[in-house]
Amino acid sequence: MGKLTDVLNELHLDNQLTPDKIPSIDLYMDQVIQLFERTFESSTRNEEEKVLTKTMINNYAKGKLLFPIQQKKYSKEHLLLISLIYQLKGSLSINDIKTTLSGINERIGDIDLDSFYEEFLTVAADNVKHGRADIAGRIEDITARTDELGQIMQILALVHVSNMYRKTAEKLVDQLAEKKNLS
After folding, report:
1. What is the dihedral of CA 41, 42, 44, 48, to 10 degrees?
2. Mean pLDDT, all residues of the chain
3. Cβ distance 99 to 173 under 8 Å?
4. Which end of the chain is more exposed for a tag (fewer CB within 10 A), N or C?
5. First to last CA, the chain
6. What per-residue confidence (pLDDT) applies to 9?
7. What percent of the residues of the chain are helix, what percent strand, and what percent coil, each to the nearest 5?
8. What confidence score (pLDDT) does residue 2 get?
9. How many CB atoms lie within 10 A of CB 39?
10. 71-119 per-position pLDDT tens digit
């Protein structure tokens, strides 16, 4: 169990871009990348993995995952949306992310994105707490084997649970898209 605790700690699952880490001035792309690298670099799988690149940001803008950037500067709202995209991109396609965030992008001036994002951070912290316990319980229940086959079974079980969550999220995206098409 100690080894699993070490693995979970290495993941830095509680790393989040919090509003207090975002400067009160608009940022240029290089500054945005630096902010995200500082925030999430300990969460990456290895040193070669990039948290965010210019190409990614440009693709998000071109794909209309973000409302228009003004004078090559990114506002706090842009950074909050990029953070949400960062969370979503591990499980959802770019089209699904666009569908999911379109309601925010379309009403960016009319909604309190800070409050919405704070609510997300609360949910995320709760997910980490419960997720740690769930993973520990699942791994413990799977097998008492300590050999390679036991570890493979643990990997398979965790990926299976991950796929169930991803497929559920995709179904919810489909329902959101269907609802938008009917409006």
Report:
1. 60
2. 91
3. yes
4. C
5. 51
6. 82
7. 70, 5, 30
8. 55
9. 19
10. 999 999 999 999 999 999 999 999 999 999 999 999 998 999 999 999 9
Place of tokens 């770019």: 94
Q: Which helix (H) or strand (E) holds 27?
A: strand 27-28
Report d(CA 66, CA 49) in Å as an integer: 23
Q: Which pLDDT band holds residue 142 (cuts at 50, 70, 90)?
A: confident
Count the residues in the chain.
Answer: 183
Please say whether the beta carbons of 66 and 86 come within 8 A: no
Residue 152 CA to residue 48 CA, distance in Å, equals 25
Rounded CA separation 37/53 (Å): 10
- Residue 57 is encoded by which pair of tokens? 């940001």
pLDDT of residue 143: 67
Bridge partners, 28 (sequence order): 73
Residues whose CB falls within 8 Å of the CB of residue 19, separated by 6 or more in sequence, listed in order:
76, 80, 114, 117, 118
